[in-house]
TrEMBL record:
It comes from the Bacteria. The keyword Cell inner membrane does not apply. The keyword Signal applies. The lineage of its organism: Bacteria, Bacillati, Chloroflexota, Candidatus Thermofontia, Candidatus Thermofonsia Clade 1. InterPro entries: Thioredoxin-like_sf, Thioredoxin_domain, Thioredoxin_ResA/DsbE_sf. This is Thioredoxin domain-containing protein. Residues 1-27 form the signal peptide. Residues 25-182 form the Thioredoxin domain. It comes from Candidatus Thermofonsia Clade 1 bacterium. Keywords: Signal.
Amino acid sequence: MFKRTRLWAVALAIFLAVGGLAALARAQDELPAWMQIELVDAMTGERFTLADLLGKTILVEPMATWCSNCRRQMTETTKLIKQLEEDEDERLEQFVFLSLSIETNLKPEDLKTYAERNGFASTFAVMSEEMLRALVAEFGRSVANPPSSPSFIIRADGTFTAIKTGIETAETILAELEAEFVEVEAVGTAEPTAEVAWTPTPRK
């Protein structure tokens, strides 16, 4: 009897795993194209897509190196990151802070120099023309207007907010990230976690 129960348990586990993988494949197919366009982490050279980050709550801030309002906004974002680091706040593990340059011809090494010179703590990458066009189609022209301080949040399950504009304080950013937090299930389990395909390298 015990052996038969074990066999059923193994069969059920396989069924759930296969079903979970199928659901994940369907979910990937349903993601917008801009989430699957390759980016390069300007700080590390690692390649990733926004889809790789699903399972975490992602703050996306379109920016440009010539934009003074962007520097003000990213100073607030860095303030939040540093505060979470100093407090050893576990919530930091659930968030990704991503600054995407709309300067499609900008070299990643130049963006890295810019981020380091200003002491910014976000993950930085340069959008391709394809990605910029896709984001404009999704969110409107404001996403390509860095001085308006545009931003949006991608939830852990792949859904996302409308675009917002205006400089926000560290406290406001944290409140918005918390408001958009959702739990997602890992493949084949009932646990409220998800595997993340790529995680930004922490910077001090």
